[in-house]
Structure formats: C-alpha cells, structure tokens
Amino acid sequence: MNIPDPLSLIEYPCDFPLKVVGRVDGLPAKLAIHSKRDAITPSLREDSPLSGAVKHWRQDFIEAVLTIVKRHAPDFDEETLEFKISKRNTYLSLTCTIRAISRPQLDALYQELYDHPMVAMVL
Fold it and tell me: HSE-up of 31 (CA within 13 Å, CB side)?
C-alpha cells in the first residue's frame, strides 16, 4: 500500500519525465556553464577534427545518465529515451520518463545526476 506524502503534489506511483542537460563538446559542464559561450564553443563541422571527440563525449554523457537513471529506476526502458542536441552542438538534452515510486527515489536520482560533472542541469 502506498502512503501519500502530504508535502508532495505528486501522487505515486506515476510516470515522471526527467530532463537532463549536459555539455557534450569536451568541456566539463559545471565549469563551462559559467563561461562566455562564443569564447569556448568551437564551430564543429562534420569534417572537423573535434567532431569525433564530440561524438565520444555525447556517448559518454548518454551512458553516464542511463547508468544513474537505471540505478534509481531499474525498470526504465532505454528505448523510450528522447534526446536533442543544441544548435551549436554544445549541449545535449535527454528526456527519461521513469516510473516514480516515491519522493526519496526522485530526490536521490536528482542529486546523483546533479553531482555528475558532465551534467549542467536537471529539470
């Protein structure tokens, strides 16, 4: 039986979309988010020598987020993962819709994602 949390506006269990934004151009998200965009964002064409590194960082970011999400929501289906890359190939946003079962589960998930060095923002 699920006991309602009087402090929560969410009724558990529920499907809960979680958006995770990370910097995927090779710079640490926590450092780069405070820098001037044009000074640190290289323009990346597909034939640029940096494009391979960017693709590697994207994959690392996706794998890191999936590992954390699955630790807190083991039933998360990776096939439902949605993603979008920013116009300048600087940021990647991932949307994971999990089956949330409690506020402590969401709090722990948000905290671990926020603490990861590749994550710039969690919504």
Answer: 8
* 94 DSSP β-pair partners: 20, 83
Judge contact between 83 and 94, C-beta under 8 A: yes
* CA–CA gap between residue 120 and residue 32 (Å, rounded): 9
Domains and CATH numbers, the chain: 14-36+48-122 (3.30.70.260)
What global pTM score does this model have?
0.76
- 23 burial via Cβ count (<10 Å: 0-12, 13-18, 19+): buried
Q: Report residue 105 as tokens.
A: 């589960």
- The model's pLDDT over 25-74, given as tens digits with 9 standing for 90+, comes to 765 565 444 433 333 333 444 544 445 656 778 899 999 999 999 999 99
Single out the residue of 31, 2, 12 nearest to residue 100, CA to CA.
12
